Amino acid sequence: MTSLLLIGAVLLIVSDLVKHGFFSTSRLNESKDALAAVQSIAQVLFIVLGAIFSYYRFFHGRSFVSRARVAIGIKVVDTSARVYLHYVTVELENLGTVTIWEPVPTLRARMIGPDGTREETVKEWRGATHHSGKGRGYAVVDSGETVSFTAYIEVAKSFWAVEYEAVVRDADDVEWTRGELVANKPDHDR
Q: Where are the domains positioned within the chain?
């Protein structure tokens, strides 16, 4: 509706200018150079506005930004004791264009059972491996690379399920989070 009003207003203004002689053929011939200059200025202005719009549409907030995907893998192993062994793998894949420095995972395990819940937090990880094969450890994760962190948790067989929440934080305090709920049964029983 607003665009219709705007087009109508422009048409009224142009018709009024033609009526008063501002847009006559003789006047247009006299100011040919000035019209060419105005046309060039308008073209440059549209190109600049298009470039600004393109930047905000396609690049603003996407360049030089840390982006990552966190995945949790859980394998439940039966033991002869009264606990199951949950072997947990947290993977961080760098999807952005910026290197992720010193990723540190934290895993919160909330065990759910008939007697309520119990929480346990894992902050120490064993055998962090780097999937690039370059042997640099896990202090740096470049674009397109993945790093894995592993740990195990002993969960009493009386619990029904375990809810995992993995938080990976880098040196700049950027966080990525992933949650997973698994039944407290060995993998072959699920």
A: 2-59, 68-189
